Amino acid sequence: MKFTFKTEILPILLIIFSIGLGFYFYSVSPDQVPMHWNAYGEIDRYGSKLEGSTMGPAILLGLYLLFLVIPLLDPKKEKYEQFIGVYKMFRLMIMLLLFAIFTIASLSGIGYDIKVGIWIPFLIGIMFMFMGNYFGKIKPNWFMGIRTPWTLSSDEVWYKTHRLGGKLFMLMGLFFMLTPLWPPKSLVWTLIVPAVVAALVPIVYSYIIFNKLKK
Question: Residue 3 has what pLDDT?
Answer without folding.
Answer: 67
